[in-house]
Amino acid sequence: MDIASKDLLQLYYYLKLTRHLEGRVTTLYRQGKILGGAWTSYGTEAISVGYSYALEKDDVIAPYFRDMGAYLVRGITPKRIMAHYLGKKTGVTGGKEGNVHVGDIKLGIFGYPSHLADNLPVAVGAALAFKIRGEKRVAAATTGDGGTSRGDFHEALNMASVFKVPAVFFCNNNKYAYSTPLTRQMAIKNVVERALAYAIPAEIVDGNDVVAVYTAAKKAYARAREGGGPTFIECKTMRMHGHSEHDSAKYVPKELLEEWKKKDPIINMEKYLLNNKIANQPGLDEVDKRVKQELVDAEEFAEKSPYPEGKEAIEGLYATPL
Ligand SMILES: Cc1ncc(C[n+]2csc(CCOP(=O)(O)OP(=O)(O)O)c2C)c(N)n1
Q1: Per-residue pLDDT tens over the stretch 199-225
Q2: Which of 59, 105, 187, 223 has the smallest set of CB atoms within 10 Å of its CB?
Q3: Is any atom of ligand 1 closer than 6 Å to the C-beta of 242?
Q4: What are the structural domains of the chain?
């Protein structure tokens, strides 16, 4: 697939933005400035950036908690995210939520019910609606490997397949579900086998290669739009930090982390851009500088923003029909 240079550079920009934003959030968490917890997608950013960048504006996503890249790509600004983490009124949830259960329906992002595949039935419902209305839109949803062991995952895939809805599922297979390694949560080798059992076409991609994720996603979305039904894409990667920043992840063998450090998605993309002469080193440094400045501005905006007032706690809790 031919990808325009401008899109490849944007993919790189979003990888860097996600990495630095979550890095800064982690620092703020350690300083005690974050009101809730800090879950990051460190080392797996290529999945959320790749699958979301391949979508069209009218499509929707039902993300999970390691999808910061998708929030950014779809237009939740770093300012709103920073303000969210600091519990401010200008944050994504107006200061109501202190974790990463965020969404913005105006940007086609469903706020998710839980971290563990409950978002997949939501995507299937949206996709079924698109199909019934004859709209060429797609719903994308993600889950971790652990989430694929839960009932919601299986119900969603079964229904998506039976009704042939335009939904595309991504698995961020980062080898651990909290402290449980893959081998303790499933007896199969590859998660794709679960999708194949529902007669859903499935593919394994390198989850640390943003171009591979983007390309597989584009193909699956095109098929879904043409009435070809759902696809499942297993993105193999490694969770490089703890489950959350409170977790030192001592249960993960050091050698495994060392091995995957060499496959870092940002380093991969830099090599790709340099080798294919799409960018030079000063160009990449410029992106880094731009991203860091954007985050300084975002943090300043968040710091200066007010906290919500008490009475706002009960406002906006229920959906207003669009
Ligand atoms: C029903 C339910 N059980 C447990 C939790 C706590 N929890 C949140 S995420 C998670 C592990 C998720 O693992 P996985 O699906 O592999 O995603 P990963 O963290 O690896 O990205 C757990 C146990 C929860 N949020 N909801």
Answers
A1: 999 999 999 999 999 999 999 999 999
A2: 187
A3: no
A4: 5-306 (3.40.50.970)
